[in-house]
Amino acid sequence: MNIKYLSILFIAGVITACTHKNTEDTAIDQLLSRMTLEEKIGQMNQLNYEGNSQELDKRIKAGEIGSLLNVVDPVEGNRLQKIAVEESRLGIPLIIGRDVIHGFKTIFPIPLGQAASFNPQIVEKGARIAATEARSVGIHWTFAPMLDISRDARWGRIAESLGEDPYLASVLGAAMVKGFQTDSLSNPTAIAACVKHFVGYGAGEGGRDYNSTNIPPHLMRNVYLRPFESAIHAGAATVMTSFNDNDGVPSSGNTYLLRNVLRDEWKFDGFVVSDWASITEMIAHGFAQDDKQAAEIASNAGLDMEMVSGAYAKYLPELVRDGKVSDKVIDEAVRHILRIKYRLGLFDHPYADTQAPSASYAEESLATAKEAAIQSAILLKNANHLLPLNKNGKIAVIGPMADAPHEQLGTWVFDSEKERSLTPIKALQTMYPEVKYRYEPALAYSRDSNKSAFSKARAAAQQSDVAVVFLGEESILSGEAHCLANIDLVGVQSDLLREVKSTGKPVVLVIMAGRPLTIEKDLPYADAVLYNFHPGTMGGPAIWDLLFGNANPSGKLPVTFVRHVGQIPLYYNHNNTGRPAPDRAASLNDIPVEAEQTSLGNTSHYLDYGKNPLFPFGYGLSYTTFEYSNLQLSAPSIQEGEPLTIQATVANIGNVDGTEVVQLYVQDVVGSIARPVKELKGFSRVSLKAGEAKVVEFTLTSDDLAFWGRDRVRKAEPGDFNVWVGGDSNAPLKTTFTLVE
Ligand code: NOJ
After folding, report:
1. Phi and psi, residue 4, nearest 5°
2. What residue owns the CA closest to ligand 1's atom 3?
3. Measured in angstroms, how far is the CA atom of residue 275 from the centroid of ligand 1?
4. Ligand 1: distance of its center to the CA of 75 in Å?
5. pLDDT, tens digit, for every residue of 365-392?
6. Catalytic one among 99, 165, 245, 275?
């Protein structure tokens, strides 16, 4: 046993002996006291693994690297870890990160789809399965959940978001953190979560990725920061800064956000990582003149670890010696990083168990992924109760998404094999061998513009009782840097739908996409529409379960569907203008020629597309009908700190069992700053047998009514509140209460 190894054992011993937080700090302090400046800066340096190289081994051995991303081979991960643990002077383990966004091997619906379930339990389970699969091959850390509020469907990363609402994203984001991390990071199947992108990234100008944001302080607090605060309180171990600048300050250099908000206010004690080269990208932003200044700005702002761009490793030693960055700043950053390594148990258990049985694609995981896909699908239309379909009829299965194993997985899938995807065609063949169908893809992929096979699709529809048309987006059309100015169904898919409809056969449109598309002009050509945000490995079985009525749709829209791209941004929880439009505002074709300037009324709407969306936030149909009644409050007024109970009766008045997402919306009528027309404050998935009714109850306290007001303090302001309970954000059932001083 050599001296180095003895010192490793000593450190490991000190660290193992620590059983609670103070001793955790003591152990880290002891380790810190033995580190050179270069070793400390090494911890702040994350590199992308680009294959095995002597140079990489040498740098790990020299203690120059604290983290690697994208090592997925457990044998190679263990080899690299062994160099860090057994050959570097202090034996500090590497933390290995990977984008495990909506599954590792077993792929769940994209996060936007999971948000449509309005179900924190299934979201937590999905993250749990992803963590177990990833940790089994030596991944310690995922760059998820993405908590960027997304109000712009042109932005490709809306796919990765939990939608437009800060409350929904807060609840589901916290559930994901819990699923990845469990109650303790030391759980051998836990991985550290990384909440991103801190902050505002979803509000980039024009829905263009990486773009500037202009989020004023109240909006920042009341909307964009909320899901992050909730995830930090749920124990998220790490945070990633965003690419955007807000009001001129890039997030990777934003001292106010990283120190005042994250550390001082929220007491975050994990570490902050940059996004990919976002520190040196501050040069392109015009915020730093070179790599050295970028490193100085970011480290002083409180950014602990640099992802891939190497400016910390190169310039921090000199910046410290020149007094531009203090030892204290470095020590703090390293302490944050060591803390998470320590909590993950990496000092004690640095290696992946390569002998353990595979954790991937377990039966139970696939069943959960299927259930998640079922709960994530949203029924947007069902004329004449076309759905559920009769299995005895003959079905024409048409369209480029019916058998697209890669595409249905969605964005950010690096580790799953498309051969494991159960597409609708594969699922039909294996699960329903008795069903008679004819399959005609008609288009090779979603952007294909070759219409030569349309005639076959037409013939298939003519020979069948019903046509099920699978359209949508390939996975590459959403995700990072995959923004679109036009969000109609891509290519000639709308023409295909019209062609099929022209046969006179009933048409079911099944969409699989990474964003809400503008489908208003397609709706007349589909009798029923089932919308799936890319549903993952088990998309096919989930869709047929829904189409055949083995399951009843229960998903609700986590984002507003616009009628036309020009309406963006359009979201349910907007402020009112001084001139809200009436329900029937003037429309383009009704305007008389040479109408007088003021004759149309001066209100806030588009002459061509009005003020309303195609489908509102929270919307989604079922095969049954839910009726709401009897909205009651426990009191007409409450005082600060007092609970208010809100009850409503929900009845299933149809013939089949179903699950409804009951939603609670509140409006603060007058505030020290203008308040949104309504805000989601609670939701509950309620299962009801045919004919059954239940009383659903929500409890609010004044804290739930609090917001950052004119004095920049978070509190509830006394006054009147409107309350709605219902099945979407247009719920009509309404009452009021007062918060008294
Ligand atoms: C850039 C993306 O913005 C971020 O979300 C991701 O985690 C990193 N790349 C690492 O792949």
Report:
1. -60, -45
2. 275
3. 6
4. 24
5. 999 999 999 999 999 999 999 999 999 9
6. 275
Structural tokens at position 474: 């390939």
- The finding on whether 276 has its CB within 6 A of some atom of ligand 1 is yes
Question: Does 65 score more than 70 pLDDT?
Answer: yes
Span 553-584, pLDDT tens digits = 999 999 999 999 999 999 999 999 999 998 88
Say how far apart CA 331 and CA 41 lie, in whole Å.
9
Point out the ligand 1 atom lying closest to the alpha carbon of residue 70.
11
Quick check: CB of 275 below 6 Å from ligand 1? yes
CA distances, 327 to each of 294, 321, 457 (Å):
18, 9, 69
Q: How far is the CA of 451 from the centre of ligand 1 (A)?
A: 38
The pick from 102, 143, 305 for probing ligand 1's pocket by mutation, whose C-beta has the most ligand atoms within 8 angstroms, reads 143
Q: What's residue 20's pLDDT? A: 55
Minimum-distance ligand 1 atom for the alpha carbon of 196:
5
Who contacts 104 (Cβ-Cβ below 8 Å, separation ≥6)?
A: 98, 130, 133, 134, 139, 360, 415, 416
Token couple for 639: 């005082």
CB contact burial 357-388 (16+ within 10 A = b; e otherwise) = eebbbbeebbebbbbbbbbbbbbbbbeeebbb
DSSP calls for 578-591: SSBPPSS---GGGP
How many whole angstroms separate alpha carbon 302 and alpha carbon 66?
A: 17
Q: How far apart are the first and last CA of the chain?
A: 71
| Ligand 1 mean position, distance from CA 96 (Å) | 14
> Within a 10 A sphere around the Cβ of 72, how many other Cβ atoms?
17
Maximum Cα–Cα distance for the chain, whole Å? Answer: 94
Check whether 340 has a pLDDT greater than 60. yes
Instruction: Supply 124's token pair.
Output: 């937590």
List CB contacts of 582: < 8 A, sequence separation 6 or more.
601, 603
- Rounded mean pLDDT, 428-454: 98
Is position 275 annotated as part of the catalytic site?
yes
Crossing angle of helices 311-321 and 291-301, in 10° steps, is: 80
Q: Give the contacts of 13 (CB within 8 A, at least 6 positions apart).
A: none
**Ligand 1 centroid to residue 361 C-alpha, Å:** 25
Compute, in degrees rounded to 10, the torsion defined by CA atoms 253, 254, 259, 261. Answer: -150
Nearest to 706 by CA among 646, 641, 617: 641
Please tell me the distance from the alpha carbon of residue 376 to that of residue 373, in angstroms, as a whole number: 5
| Ligand 1, atom 9, residue with closest C-alpha | 276
Question: For residues 130, 369, 121 and 235, what is the CA-based torsion angle, rounded to 10 degrees?
Answer: 10
Nearest ligand 1 atom, CA 201: 3
DSSP characters over 668-723: ESS-SS--BS-EEEEEEEEEE-TT-EEEEEEEE-GGGG-EE-TTS-EEPPPEEEEE
- Taking Cα atoms as reference points, which of 379, 661, 692 lies closest to residue 547? 379
Average pLDDT of the chain, as a whole number: 96
List Cβ neighbours of 445 (8 Å cut-off, separation of 6 or more). Answer: 400, 404, 407, 474
